[in-house]
Amino acid sequence: MASCPFWGSVAYRNYRETAEVVAKGGASHLQSPPPAPLSAERLLSAANVVRSVVRSYQAKVLLASLESEQAELERIQVAAAKIIQSAVRCFQVQRQLQDFADMLRGSLLWQGACRRFTAQAALLKAWDTHERQRVAAAVKLQAAQRSFRAQRELARRKAMRDGLLLLGPKEHQCVRLFQRCGRRYLACLVVAEAEKHRWRCARHIQAHWRGCKCRRELADTLSEWRRRRNLAGSPDMWK
């Protein structure tokens, strides 16, 4: 009974007041002497009054039921609005998570590309350093070989000079002839060595040119890549 909305409504209070009035009227009628019989007009007016009271009571009951239904409908609308808001929030959070995942994936791809370019630049730098060290070692080796050959030639000439002092005229002629033949042979060796040295220099120049060209192409590619991504930095760092 407490859960029914009718017992606490205005219509129920009006019903109670009407019932109390009717009960009081009935009690007074029982205590009073029996009235005279009513005429048809008074009966008709009493019936009309009863009908109007009943209609008013029915209207109040209908109004109370409509109010309760309207309150229930408003509560349902509020609950539906809350459910729609929660669904919208879930959709927005899902979109934000998807955007964050896409951004994270792009960042990982960019970091991988940066690592690859950094590794290539380190390899090129190491190769250039190794090439310079190799050229410096070759130059030192050539200088050492020339010094050793010069010292050996000086020792040989000194030994020949010391030996010629103990020989006679015939032996001097034989030695001079042998020296001329030796000089021709040495001249041929010098020409052959110069030709080999020229070919070595040409191959070294070609290799150095190919390395410079490769580094220049890689620097152009890296500068184009950085320009497309609006990154700061100078492309000369890769040269």
Flag low-confidence runs.
234-239
Shape: rod-shaped
Q: Please trace the helix and strand order, writing H or E for each element.
A: HHH
Instruction: Report, as a whole number of angstroms, the end-to-end distance.
Output: 93 Å
Number of helices: 3
Please outline the major beta sheet. Answer: none
List the helices and strands and how they pair.
Elements: H1 10-31, H2 40-164, H3 169-228
Describe the protein's architecture and organization.
The structure is a single chain. The chain is mostly helical. The chain is built from three helices and no strands. Helix 1 runs antiparallel to helix 2 (40-164) and helix 2 runs antiparallel to helix 3 (169-228). Residues 234-239 have low confidence and may be disordered.
Features:
rod-shaped; 0% strand; IQ_motif_EF-hand-BS; 3 helices; disordered C terminus; mainly alpha; 239 residues
Summarize the structure.
The protein is mainly α and 239 residues long. It has three helices and no strands.
